[in-house]
Design goal:
about 425 residues; 6-stranded mixed barrel; 2 domains; single chain; about 20% strand; alpha+beta
Length: about 425
């Protein structure tokens, strides 16, 4: 005989074909609901991870992994600082920059912008935007050429294209403290698209020498740094700060964009909780099905009790049955969820073709595809949580079965 006995009976009940049709239907619905809930949760978490990765790549496409600036009023030999930074292990690029708020105009159109002066020769070592989009334009930023590269959104708002003039105005203060504008005409040397509004709609790039000429003085805002490992930026930023010593401020991309990732993490957490509630509803449907099984099997339980089966063993029978349902539902959900998560790039276009709609409209969103980044830890966590909920759902029906009194159950049989 198969041992232990409660396990054998519980598994037999799972396979039994003599059960009431309604009870069996409820059990299968519970199992299907659990599987779909688990699959949906895994898919949603993977898509949220994908959007987080996409946001990260777009944020650092024209931003640096870290930025070094000087304390207010400090006089710094920036060329020497750049050389010191480049000698630090794990640093793959360092470029000085000058940044100023400006107004850009084209006829009656006037837009606020961030004018960033860069060294075209070394900018490609710190910018991770696709080189085929920006590298050719960077070559046009020769010192003295008075050329500027605009984000696509900014160029659209100004109504200018490559080769057309644009007026750049910045505020300056004279010796008496009076603010006067300095105006210079630039030519649009190129247009870039980083895929993020903070870059595309406000950023303009020019040669650092041309920005200095517009200011009327040479000035360096700081140094932009790129590390070999983007994800180690906080750690390597701390190393950079210790190496440079006092008088410098070092901020990495996680600090500069903390609000973005805080919002993404909050959304991811809330979506996970909502989907977990769906899994919980499906899991606790098992309570209803097992309660009906207990009612249906009262006579069987009573006969087993009279043959010597202990209440603890009866408890094990129904815990086994509920656990088996939980394992099957969770396993199917994990398999389906992983399949969807790893093939979103195939499933989403198929849905769009089949039902004739577009999930990510290019006229509305910068991202036109649904990204997915499944993490094994997320899949494991979802599986454990779902199985724990189904195990918890078996407790009440199993205790109810264990309290069945043989004499009372057999009285009218």
């Amino acid at each position: 005989m198969f041992h232990p006995l409660p396990l054998a009976i519980g598994l037999r009940y799972v396979r039994s074909r003599k059960r009431s049709y309604f009870v069996s239907f409820i059990t299968w619905i519970s199992l299907a609901g659990l599987a779909l809930g688990v699959a949906a949760l895994i898919t949603i978490l993977s898509i949220m991870n994908g959007f987080e990765d996409e946001l990260r790549s777009r944020l650092v496409s024209l931003a640096a992994h870290a930025t070094v600036t000087a304390d207010d009023g400090a006089r710094v030999d920036w060329p020497a600082v750049v050389e010191r930074i480049r000698e630090i292990p794990q640093v793959t690029g360092a470029a000085p920059y000058d940044e100023v708020e400006a107004m850009l105009g084209n006829g009656p159109e006037l837009e606020g912008a961030i004018l960033r002066g860069i060294d075209p020769g070394v900018e490609v070592t710190v910018s991770t935007i696709a080189q085929d989009i920006i590298e050719g334009s960077l070559k046009s930023l020769a010192p003295g050429a008075d050329r500027v590269i605009l984000g696509r959104g900014l160029a659209y708002q100004l109504g200018v294209g490559v080769g057309e003039p644009v007026t750049v105005m910045i505020p300056t203060a004279d010796a008496s403290g009076e603010v006067t504008p300095r105006i210079r005409q630039f030519t649009v040397g190129g247009i870039f698209e980083a895929g993020l509004q903070d870059h595309d709609s406000v950023l303009a790039l020019a040669a650092i020498a041309d920005v200095a000429a517009l200011r009327g003085s040479t000035r360096i805002t700081g140094v932009r740094v790129k590390f070999a490992d983007l994800m180690r930026a906080p750690e390597l930023g701390a190393v950079l700060a210790r190496t440079l010593g006092p008088g410098f401020k070092v901020s990495d991309w996680t600090q500069q964009n903390a609000a973005y990732f805080r919002a993404v993490n909050i959304e991811k957490t809330m979506m996970a909780l909502i989907m977990l509630l769906i899994v919980a509803v499906a899991a606790f449907n098992i309570v209803a099905s097992l309660v009906m099984v207990v009612t249906d099997k009262r006579t069987d339980i009573a006969m087993l009790r009279t043959l010597g089966l202990t209440p603890r063993a009866v408890l094990g029978v129904f815990v086994t049955q509920g656990t088996a349902i939980g394992w099957i539902g969770t396993g199917l959900g994990v398999a389906l969820g992983a399949l969807l998560a790893y093939h979103v790039d195939v499933v989403a276009p198929w849905l769009e073709r089949t039902f004739h709609f577009q999930i990510m409209d290019a006229d509305v969103y910068y991202i036109t595809r649904i990204p997915s980044d499944p993490h094994f830890a997320d899949i494991l966590l979802v599986a454990v949580a779902a199985f724990a909920l189904t195990l918890l759902a078996t407790v009440y029906p199993a205790l109810r079965a264990a309290r069945t009194q043989p004499a009372e159950a057999l009285r009218y049989e």
